Amino acid sequence: MALSPLAPAAFPDLPVIDGVTFAAGAAGVKYQNRTDVMLALLAPGSTIAGVFTRSATRSANVLDCQAKMGSDAQAGAAILVNSGNSNAFTGKAGESSVKRICEGVAARADVPLDRVYTSSTGVIGEPLPDDRITAKLDDLMAAQSPDGIAEAARAIMTTDTFAKGSAQTVTIDGKPVQIAGIAKGSGMIAPDMATMLVYIFTDAQIGHSALQSLLLRLTDRTFNNITVDSDTSTSDTLLMGATGTSGVDVTDNAAFADALHAVMLDLSHQVVRDGEGATKFVTVNVTGAANDTDARLVAMATANSPLVKTAIAGEDPNWGRIVMAVGKSGAQADRDLLTIRLGDLVLARDGWRAPEYSEDACAAYMKGQNIDINVDLGLGDGTCTVWTCDLTHEYIRINADYRS
Amino acid sequence: MALSPLAPAAFPDLPVIDGVTFAAGAAGVKYQNRTDVMLALLAPGSTIAGVFTRSATRSANVLDCQAKMGSDAQAGAAILVNSGNSNAFTGKAGESSVKRICEGVAARADVPLDRVYTSSTGVIGEPLPDDRITAKLDDLMAAQSPDGIAEAARAIMTTDTFAKGSAQTVTIDGKPVQIAGIAKGSGMIAPDMATMLVYIFTDAQIGHSALQSLLLRLTDRTFNNITVDSDTSTSDTLLMGATGTSGVDVTDNAAFADALHAVMLDLSHQVVRDGEGATKFVTVNVTGAANDTDARLVAMATANSPLVKTAIAGEDPNWGRIVMAVGKSGAQADRDLLTIRLGDLVLARDGWRAPEYSEDACAAYMKGQNIDINVDLGLGDGTCTVWTCDLTHEYIRINADYRS
């Protein structure tokens, strides 16, 4: 698979997070000649929070993680992730696989069973060969290293064309607090390789409920606002661990929230930039909606419209398709109050094509790699921003032409 | 544009509807060397009913038609349709265009202004050159013929690859009642050529409110249950005229309702069969949902999923993607009660791949032109059937590679 043209220049240097170690290994779950399993261990006292897919057919691992949220933070914690098999729609056998993996990790890492979290990503509906994973646990324990996060990012990739990482350092009360995260995802759901997975670590000190509510709030401005193909994975998981080893309490701290937001936004944008077949990074800004819910309807209708996305792929400033998307969204809209811009170029205003509209200027704008679609509904204060990519032949090739 | 591989063998022989005449002409709205305007005249006493797009950015023509529903049936009526320009998002000028066309038709056809209905289909946001249309009205009046419906079907085409018609004859109280309909549409919204338009005529006798409620009920089982790309036009219009000239009252008549349903189902399927880039005709049957609303959510989530649609294009029996679509739909679902079939072949049951699953048998099934996806949720009595097509390179080519 060719590297996405929207990929960052390089994987970033991620800081060591005191209290977290990593190791990756090649268990041969499905892929050959690459790593496909990672184990992260967190020091006793670490807070764990998580956000999960709302799919009604979510995987056994997701159900298990959800059941373990809020467990006693006095103990250590472990996160084990495999790629190559999603363990979704695998019935009772899938639940048994999760149990065996968790037991294997708990025994070796000396953490309680309810502090072992797992994720699986890959093909749906195939039995997970968990014995291949548990056979690697001794190696993964022996190889634990504070520097292993980049290797972990590579081990969780499926159809991703690049590994995804992001970090921020924020100084609070004169002390540095580190945040480092990794993610995988190439489409909200990749071909048979269902899943967006995100793991974020910090040495900040924060309780479970405070971290959980912060994570939910920031997810609604980051990972919940990206879309590649409108499809939702059975396995989407975001787990965050806070070791507290910095000694800095970040409860209700705005600077920490901003830094975490920056890491989450960066990782979510990297997932869009690795969207299947993507050649353009698209930002849809909706303002002036009657309320935020309406703004979100318009933004998502625009970002998910196959006609808008193919027009962007074709570098066609086809604003009639944006009018169509606004109209079908279900949000309150008034044709005569609507303003549509491409970047700063006004396309439509007062219910008609803007008098200053220039086909040449808009066509030139569409040749860029970053496309901003700005829709103002002229009704109220509701706003929403979502990020997506274009819909290209390559998306069809990846999803139709190759048998999975 | 090559003829869709799913096109019917030929345009059907449509019966003359007593009390309705047609003519088509070439006004040069946008296209050259083809007809692009049609005028249908209905005898005094004809009932008119209509169903329209719910888009918040619907066209001036749609708003005008909606305002005229329920007008006095004692007078005659006229329907004028142009292709090449949708008159959508054309501001106050668009409303003036509709008014001028309606005035021109009303004066010549001797019908009240509120009995003239217009539709426009084509590019969004360009001023409609209504003078080119009114300049043709004398010709259209002179050419009126009871046999002109096939010509009318051709005049309203935009990116359609075939003209669409359907008819039924039903005998009620020993007397024949005729129903004939035409449609255009190639995608719920075609590239810049927004619109699905449908015109149905009958010599049955039925009042406005009875016809309107019948039309709404049947639309929910036909045109509202097809999807090509999940996009909704600013101009979608279904108009039906009942001349009453057969002298047969069909109010609450089940046989008439069945025959009308057959015409609407046939026309709606023809729109799917002309879906942009379509190579497969797909039926999604959902049963066992908690209620009909949930069934519809699951059916539409499946039929609109780019991953399901590309799997069908690739002839890949990728049932994990159907599980994904069920999960994301928002409907109540229980993994362990779900049964998924391709035709009669069971893919998944009891929360896992069915023991009798055969990759070879399913792969062979996917090579057919008609694909039935049957999802049973095992929860209740809710059902829904929707029809769609696959998502292919040709869809991208039509919508991205050519500048509109």
Fold topology:
Two copies of one chain form a homodimer.
Chain A: E1 20-25, E2 37-42, E3 47-52, H1 60-67, E4 77-85, H2 91-109, E5 116-123, H3 130-134, H4 137-142, H5 149-155, E6 164-172, E7 175-184, E8 197-202, H6 208-219, E9 237-242, H7 254-273, E10 281-289, H8 292-304, H9 306-313, H10 319-328, E11 339-342, E12 345-349, E13 352-353, H11 359-366, E14 370-376, E15 382-389, H12 393-401
Parallel strand pairs in A: 4-5, 8-9, 10-14
Antiparallel strand pairs in A: 1-2, 2-4, 3-9, 6-7, 7-8, 10-15, 11-12, 11-14, 12-13
Order of helices and strands of chain A: EEEHEHEHHHEEEHEHEHHHEEEHEEH
Largest sheet of chain A: 6 strands, mixed
> In angstroms, what is the radius of gyration of chain A?
22 Å
How many E-type strands of chain A?
15
Low-confidence stretches of chain A: 188-194
Gap from first CA to last CA of chain A: 14 Å
Mean pLDDT of chain A, to the nearest integer, reads 90
Q: Determine the most extensive contact between two protein chains.
A: A-B, 71 and 71 residues
Shape of chain A: globular
Strand residues, percent of chain A: 25-35%
Question: So what's the CATH class of the largest domain in chain A?
Answer: Alpha Beta
User: Can you say what the CATH homologous superfamily of the largest domain in chain A is?
Assistant: L-amino peptidase D-ALA esterase/amidase
Oligomer: homodimer
Q: How would you classify the helix and strand content of chain A by structural class?
A: alpha+beta
Protein name (chains A, B): Arginine biosynthesis bifunctional protein ArgJ
Enzyme class (chains A, B): transferase
Family (chains A, B): Belongs to the ArgJ family.
Pathway (chains A, B): Amino-acid biosynthesis; L-arginine biosynthesis; N(2)-acetyl-L-ornithine from L-glutamate: step 1/4; Amino-acid biosynthesis; L-arginine biosynthesis; L-ornithine and N-acetyl-L-glutamate from L-glutamate and N(2)-acetyl-L-ornithine (cyclic): step 1/1
